[in-house]
Each structure stands twice: as C-alpha cells, then as structure tokens.
Amino acid sequence: MPILTGSTPTKTLFMATQFLTKSTKPSLTHFRQLSCTASTTSSYPQRLEPNPPDLINWVKKQGGFVHPSVRISENGQFGLGLVASDDIASGSYLIGLPDHVPLRFGLSDGDCGADGDSVLVNVARKVPEELWAMRLGLKLLQERARVGSFWWPYISNLPETYTVPIFFPGEDIKNLQYAPLLYQVNKRCRFLLDFEKELERVLGNLDSNDHPFGSQDVDASSLGWAMSAVSSRAFRLYGKKLQDGTHSNAPMMLPLIDMCNHSFSPNAEIVQEQGDANAKMLVKVVAGTDIKQDDALVLNYGCLNNDLFLLDYGFVIPSNPYDCIELRYDGALLDAASMAAGVSSPNFSTPAPWQQDILLKLDLDGESPLLKVSLGGPELVEGRLLAALRVLLERDVEKVQNHDLDTLKSLSVEAPLGIPNEVAVLRTCIALCVIALEHFPTKLMEDESLLKKDISGTAELAIQFRIQKKSLIIDVMRDLTRRVKLLSSQESAVS
C-alpha cells in the first residue's frame, strides 16, 4: 500500500500559489509519494494501484448489490465510468451500498466515521465550512495510510492525479483569464499551504499511536489530492438522525456509485432508504429512465456553473445553461456602462435616499453588502442587479412604489417601469457584457485556433473554460439585444 511519504518531485501546487500571488516564499523542499499533479495529457490518469481489486466484486462481498448489467468501462473523455452491458428498464435497482460501505467522517458526537479519533476531529474542525471536502479528505488520507484499511480496495481504484486548477502549472492558471476563478484557485492553494504548516504544528510531537497518519508526513500536495478526490467524488446525503426527526447533512464517498459521470439529463438517481428507527441506511442508485445497452450511467451532480465544475471536478460543460459571469456591483462602473450605452445622466454613484433604501433591501448597500452579481444562467440578469438597474434608472418614485421587489427582480415581467426604462436597463447590461469581454486578453477566435495545436491537457482545459465564458457573454448580449429590438418596435408601434 502506498504511504504518505516518498520521492515524487512535484511543486505544482506551490507554483500555482506563487504565480498568483507573486509570493517570495521558498519552494517546498520535501517531496512525498502522495504528491499530486494534474495530468499533462488528455488521457485518463492512472489509479493509485496499477492493478487494483475489482470494485464490483468488493461491493458484493460487503453485502452490496450491483445489477448484473452494470460494468466498469473507460471513456476517453471522462475516464472510468459505469455503463450498461445490456438494456436496463426504468426503475431498476442498479447499485446498493449497505451502511458500512460509504466513507464518511463526522465531527460531532455520534456521527458515523469519527472513530473516536479526537486528534483528527480537532484538526478537521480547523477547516472552514466552505472547504468541507478537506474534512472528509483527512479521513481519506488516514485510510490511505492505514495498512489493511477496510476501504483500501476502494481507495486503490482512485486516480493518482486530478486535473483541477490547484494542480495546474502556473502558465495554465494564467490562461484561465477569469478573475473570480483565479481568486478561488489562489484561496485554495493558500489554504493548503497554511494547513500543511498547521498539521506540522499539531502533529509534530505525537507518538505513532496517537498520530492519525501513522507518523507519516502530509504535505500540501497530499492534502490537495485528498481534497480533490472528495470534491470530485463525494455526495452530500442524509447523515445522523437528529432529535427533531430530520437528518444532518453528511458528505460521503460512495464506492462504485461515484463512477457514474455527470449529465444535466441523468438516467439514474441516488436514493436513500431507511426502515424502522433502528435500521441502517441504505444508499441506492435507481434507473430513472430506460437505459440502452452501452449507455453510460449518469447522475446530475447539481445545477452548477463552470467555475465549480472545473474547481471541484476538473472538467468544463460546453453550453452549460447554469454558467454565468460574476461582476462586482459598483456605482462608477454602472455609470460608465450606462453612458457608453447612450443613457443620459445615470446616477448609480449618487442614488437618491429612496433609491438607496431599495438598494439596502437588495443587499447592495449598507454595512456588509453582497456586491457580487451575475449575468447569464437561468435568470440571464441576476434579479438583484436587474431590480437595482430598473430603480436607479427611474426618477418617478410613485411608479417604482407601485411594484414589489419580486416584480422588479424578474426579467419575465416585461418593462414594469415602462419601455424607455427597460431599454435603458438592457442597454446598460449589454455594455457591462462588452466591458467584461474586453477584460479577456485574447479573442474567442484566437482561443479556438489554440485548441487545434498540440497542447497539454491542463492548457486545453484552461482554454475551454475561457471559451465558454466568452461564448456565454456573447450569448447574453444577443439575447438582450433581441429584447431591446422587440421593445423598441413595440414603442414605435404605440407612438
């Protein structure tokens, strides 16, 4: 079984952080076998063990169920996945895992998976909630280090590398070209480097009996591997039953089930079943539609944007209907956009008191405002941004007061404050799109030509990501332009 120390020379995680922050810290001087880099080619990475145990047989031996027509197959684009070797009818029971098979880690008394390991629990409590994958990742590392671990047949089937941005070479991080994602990559890299030091401090003087990793070193790269393994494979399901009858939210790694790839049109779904109060919970996968022979078994990982798909899963969804671009709500920026759109005398920087009251209700003003807004996705224009634009481009107080905030936040409500107001709002949004597009240092056609060259897998992912962002912006502009033309024609017909 691999241990947590070794000699694989990788500095990719450090290089990523150094590139983003221009840090002057010295490079990591110790290299461990668990260290992880992203694959530099488009081929699927090797598993931890060259010839791992058969996972289907292992699940069956543990009392689980696997439909006889479900098999593991390698897909060139998505790696290992589950496919149907024969037709499977809708409603069929595909996979079932008994309660003891999922890998989980609870931090509170009575949660499954804590194993009474107070050291690991206390360390895990230092991980912020938004990086919950690192908490379960600590348990995963512990089991990877433990000789004879119950979960080794599962862990040995995990990829030894992940194509997530924290492991991209510095130049490919730069090639993402999108500030919100660069911020998140930098934040995660910084956390991993700081958490490595925290582990050294907490675990440095423990004897082997108390050490959660058997006295083996755990560096930033091994932590990154574990966090990536969890973020790309874990599911947040029901955990311990609470006193009020509800269940806690518990991240779990589900052996075999996590080989189902993603689709927004899934043919399978996860179901949790529990009988009487003392019964153990069973995690099942059920066919949601008829599945044809050689079809992949796919689940919906969630209605996520491409930022999260790339950060957590290492892939990008073309034409993702939930993708969006993030903007900062800024009065000066909106004034500039409105003037560029031909709107006369916008006053985003100096709202009237009644307009400022509405901005407070939209959480766009005040002591701790939420200034991140978005364009794209199902809303096209985020409701808070749309309402703010409509209100601040309207000078008639009574006209605004005739509508509630839900109406003002809805693009499906056509021109609630009149056509001139709506046209000004939409033109301002188009100008925001133009500004966002200009922030990318390369053009869409340049990116598309780069994909035709011989480039690394991480470079290809970075280019695909920024192509999708630029395409999204262009699609939003087209949709808004169409709406402006329709409204303008309606106004002309009335006049």
Question: What order do the helices and strands come in, and which of them pair?
Answer:
Elements: H1 12-21, H2 55-61, E1 65-66, E2 70-75, E3 79-84, E4 93-97, E5 103-104, H3 118-124, H4 132-145, H5 152-155, H6 170-174, H7 179-203, H8 220-233, E6 235-241, E7 247-253, E8 261-262, E9 268-273, E10 282-287, E11 298-299, H9 306-313, E12 324-328, H10 331-340, H11 353-361, E13 372-376, E14 380-381, H12 383-392, H13 397-401, H14 405-408, H15 419-438, H16 444-450, H17 457-494
Parallel strand pairs: 8-11
Antiparallel strand pairs: 1-4, 2-3, 4-10, 5-7, 6-7, 9-10, 12-13, 13-14
Helix pairs in contact: 1-7, 4-8, 7-8, 10-15, 15-17, 16-17
> What does the average pLDDT come to?
87
Would you tell me the structural class of the helices and strands? alpha+beta
> What percent of residues adopt helix (DSSP H or I)?
25-40%
What is the spatial order of strands in the main beta sheet? 1-4-10-9
Number of strands: 14
Radius of gyration: 26 Å
The fraction of residues in strands falls at 5-15%
- Uncertain regions spanning at least 5 consecutive residues: 1-12, 14-42, 109-116
Biggest sheet statistics: 4 strands, antiparallel
Distance between the termini: 79 Å
Shape summary: globular
Pfam families: Rubis-subs-bind, SET
Organism: Heracleum sosnowskyi
GO molecular function: protein-lysine N-methyltransferase activity
Protein name: Histone-lysine N-methyltransferase setd3
